[in-house]
Design goal:
Layout lengths: L1 E10 L2 E6 L4 E6 L6 H13 L18 E10 L2 E12 L2 E8 L2 E3 L1 H4 L5 E4 L11 H15 L1 H22 L6 H41 L5 E6 L9 H11 L1 H7 L10 E6 L2 E2 H4 L2 H23 L4 E5 L7 H10 L5 E6 L10 E6 L2 E4 L1
Parallel strand pairs: 3-13, 3-14, 8-12, 12-13
Antiparallel strand pairs: 1-2, 1-4, 4-5, 5-6, 6-7, 9-10, 10-11, 14-15
Bound molecules: adenosine-5'-diphosphate and magnesium ion.
Length: about 375
């Protein structure tokens, strides 16, 4: 897909912007704090309906104003779509509204109309960091690909939160209510497990090829799904039901939820040994890049249409060889947006723009 027009009003440091991106690679260069990451954040909003970095969505509204708007036109195989997200100040927080082709829609129907793969410096921790990062990685891709996945994720998350609050409570939890929550977790929980297992099988196959092409070594990097509950061939619903029943007393004793897909992880190994403990930093970084390329390829093949690639300041964190390998691997992307503080010579063919104080000019 291609983003052909982007319009911002009072988004972050942009009072107003009207921008026509090019197909292929768009490179944004400029010193710090000019609005490069903000621009990528705005593009991502059109796909995922939320910020990839803000803690509070009211931060997205330009200081001193009340309403931020992001509007974009995207070319997809079915034609052209027009997407708009607005964020309005509301009390201490913010309220978002969305529309597609001029009709108001809820978040769930907005999500995934456009699709992005984002790559930010924090992603470099994907291998060495904690499991929450890897769950976010899975959720980010799957929620854009499948409305059913997003519904399961939202439903599961809500019930698990209620259950956790019940377990944490000062008074002994109502066992009946706890059982009712466990029952309600089964359908969305099993949906998450099944979707993640299938998706990880796809990215594992894609990442394996990428890693081998890059390193030319015979070391094997393997990615597998490490579900908290269930084995590869087990029925996820039955496995989850059994695990919840078996852990009921322990959860009551420990006053917290102990089992379920909210504790899932990915297992990454190099020649059979955990990559976080046994891989060099170089091997870990290469594996992260391979994961991102695999995410891109899997999203493209599943959706039948390439996602938009957003690379925020990551190339400067990589040595020239890895950066080159990464760009070559996604070389057939339809459209990418890349930010950088200095412009390397290899971007001669790209559409290049300078961002200075929230204004964009070709350079
Ligand atoms: N809600 C906001 N209103 C006004 N300015 C903002 C808002 N949020 C962030 N900014 C400003 O945006 C700038 C940072 O933009 P960013 O895109 O992160 O920079 P960079 O070009 O380094 O990626 C900072 O100057 C920050 O103060
Ligand atoms: Mg930045």
């Amino acid at each position: 897909m291609l983003l052909t027009a982007l319009r911002l009003a009072d988004f972050r440091n942009y009072p107003a912007l009207d921008f026509a991106p090019a197909p292929g690679l768009n490179v944004f260069v400029g010193p710090n704090a000019q609005g490069k990451s903000n621009l990528l954040e705005a593009i991502a909003m059109l796909a995922i309906g939320k910020s990839f970095r803000a803690r509070r969505e009211s931060e997205l509204i330009r200081d001193g104003t009340q309403l931020a708007e992001i509007a974009g036109t995207a070319q997809v195989p079915a034609g052209e779509i027009f997407l708009r997200a607005s964020i309005a100040r509301s009390g201490n927080g913010a309220r978002k509204t969305f529309d597609v082709n001029g009709s108001a829609v809820g978040f769930a129907r907005f999500l995934g109309r456009a699709r992005v793969v984002t790559f930010v410096p924090a992603d470099l921790q994907l291998v060495a960091g904690g499991p929450a990062l890897r769950r976010t990685f899975l959720n980010g891709a799957l929620a854009q690909l499948s409305p059913a996945y997003y519904r399961d994720l939202a439903r599961y998350g809500k019930i698990v939160q209620q259950k956790a609050a019940l377990l944490r409570g000062a008074i002994a939890p109502d066992r009946e209510l706890l059982l009712a929550y466990n029952e309600e977790l089964l359908t969305p929980g099993a949906g998450l497990i099944a979707a993640r297992a299938a998706f990880v099988a796809d990215i594992a196959a894609a990442a394996d090829g990428v890693y081998e092409r890059w390193t030319g070594t015979r070391e094997r990097v393997a990615i597998t799904y490490a579900p908290n509950v269930g084995a590869p061939d087990a029925d996820p619903r039955a496995a989850l039901e059994a695990a919840l029943a078996n852990n009921l007393d322990a959860e009551l004793r420990r006053k917290t939820t102990l089992v379920g897909p909210h504790r899932d992880d990915l297992r990454l190994t190099i020649d059979g040994r955990p990559l976080d403990a046994f891989g060099s930093q170089g091997q870990q970084r290469t594996a992260v890049l391979a994961l991102k390329v695999a995410e891109y390829e899997t999203m493209r093949s599943r959706a039948g249409d390439a996602p938009i690639l957003l690379l925020d300041d990551v190339l400067s964190e990589l040595d020239a060889e890895r950066a080159g390998g990464f760009l070559a691997a996604v070389g057939t992307f339809e459209q990418a947006f890349l930010t950088t503080t200095d412009l390397p010579a290899r971007f001669d063919d790209a559409a290049r723009f300078r961002i200075s104080a929230a204004t964009i000019a070709a350079c």
